[in-house]
Design goal:
Number of domains of chain A: 2
Number of helices of chain A: 9
CATH class of the largest domain in chain A: Alpha Beta
Structural class of chain A: alpha+beta
Largest interface: A-B, 51 and 51 residues
CATH superfamily of the largest domain in chain A: GAF domain
CATH architecture of the largest domain in chain A: 2-Layer Sandwich
Helix content of chain A: 40-55%
Number of strands of chain A: 8
CATH topology of the largest domain in chain A: Beta-Lactamase
Shape of chain A: globular
Largest sheet of chain A: 6 strands, antiparallel
Oligomer: homodimer
Distance between the termini of chain A: 25 Å
Order of helices and strands of chain A: HHHEEHHEEEHHHEEEH
DNA sequence: ATAATGGTTTCGTATTGTGAAATATATCTC
DNA sequence: GAGATATATTTCACAATACGAAACCATTAT
């Protein structure tokens, strides 16, 4: 097997070092995070900037992701056929329940939002495509785990589950029981486990090979979601996920 | 000045070779487009794939943009503060006029959609963030040119304007006159110049340094936009662009 | 005024990326 | 089914590049 291009890997790791907690970083900070020499980091940034992949804030000297990545990301998003096919289902669900609806996939131990349709109400759960969230304490993550392969499940259970709120389920056995209940009712529930004030329900999209392709979730402010409303939304998201699964069942998507 | 990293530039040009007309390409095709050796292209693709920047379709052997670019693009989009600040204005305008509304910027001789809010009506103009469109025959482009610097204007006028429809204005003097009328009424008009069946109006967002930061456009199917409706929408987009310009005027955005 | 910190540049050289050539795989034609 | 064609993948000698140590520059803090 051929050897990967070292400086290319370094550059990609550099780009991936930016996240929404660190949208801007300087040469020295990036060098420290990536364990690279400042001269190397500077040379990579200089080249990325020439092609518009990063841009330097002249006032601070720090760098951020550039316009070319916005464009490539938009093109990459267009090609996620699951997103495209799911959109009408998400729109219908959002219009019916008037809460924030999202589509997420599992990736490297976390859930990543592929699409978010926010509630039309003034008070709503804000989320963004591309954002990552933990698996063990979110409705999306639990809907995934309940139907995931044993390997993904053991990966999560073998790692320390850090409490996000006092309601976070951190005991592996309690989580397994929660996942059993999820399978029983066909949708997961997160009651202020990931963030105080937010409740959510989610259901899996199963593809033609009986694998969890993605999950659909509904999230809302806790005060607007008494138990009977949670049940209603759970049934709605289960129904939508089932319809989308059926819609996708005839063909596999990437 | 330091010398850019050659293989990094090559990799970025490779990624930028993908567009919505060419979402998937193989090693040989990319080598031809980029004038690089197949072994070089293969090595770059192999490395990009390791980090998730591209993925190979096992069925066809061709490559497409990968999930990491989707994520980076989403993060890059989040940081375009103009997009964020403009969104409420775009939403209000779209809800009022019930046609597709978009925000675009000028980049390298073309307009690029930053944000698109599609009409809620069943028949609507579909557009996508990240897409590019010509300057001389779109409402967005003409709104930009009317207020752009002389350099951008001469760049466009000195290049051949290829007709997109029988209505495309290709004569430099006729275009200049059209731009004069645009400045006079405060918004541009494109009557099926870019695509048969589509009419659009657009107005510039002027920042605190009196430069055109972006443009807002409204686009709709021609049959739904008789002349008096075009005038209404023109006034509406002009008003929204002015409000946004004022909103942004106190601070420069990147 | 000096020190500390972060960004930028230089340049000798070790390491890497290159591409010519070969091999492997898949598809097409007869 | 054999041979031809096209594309993808791999190998390896070596030329060219990327590297990082050191120095320099600019800004901020003391």
């Amino acid at each position: 097997m051929s050897r990967p291009v070292q400086v290319l890997q370094r550059a990609m790791k550099l780009l991936t070092a930016f996240d929404h907690d660190h949208p801007e970083m300087g040469v020295t900070e990036l060098a420290q995070r990536l364990d690279l020499h400042k001269a190397t980091v500077h040379r990579i940034l200089f080249t990325l900037e020439l092609e518009g992949f990063v841009q330097q804030n002249p006032a601070t000297g720090k760098y951020r992701l550039g316009f070319r990545l916005f464009e490539l990301g938009a093109l990459a998003a267009e090609q996620i056929s699951l997103r495209r096919e799911a959109l009408p289902f998400l729109e219908k669900l959002r219009d019916e329940c008037r809460e924030t609806v999202d589509l997420a996939v599992y990736d490297n131990g976390e859930m990543v939002y592929l699409e978010v349709l926010e509630s039309p109400l003034p008070i709503k759960i804000a989320a963004r495509p591309g954002r990552r969230l933990p698996v063990y304490c979110t409705a999306s993550g639990k809907a995934y785990l309940a139907y995931a392969g044993e390997e993904d499940l053991q990966t999560v259970l073998s790692q320390e589950m850090i409490p996000c709120t006092p309601n976070t389920i951190c005991d592996p056995e309690a989580l397994q029981e929660d996942l059993r209940l999820t399978r029983e009712r066909g949708y997961s529930i997160s009651l202020e486990e990931y963030e105080i004030g937010i409740k959510a329900v989610a259901a899996p999209i199963i593809n033609g090979l009986s694998r969890v392709e993605a999950v659909i979730a509904i999230a809302g402010p806790a005060y607007r979601l008494p138990p009977e409303r949670v049940t209603e939304l759970g049934e709605a998201v289960r129904q939508t996920a089932r319809e989308l699964s059926r819609h996708l069942g005839g063909r596999l998507t990437t």
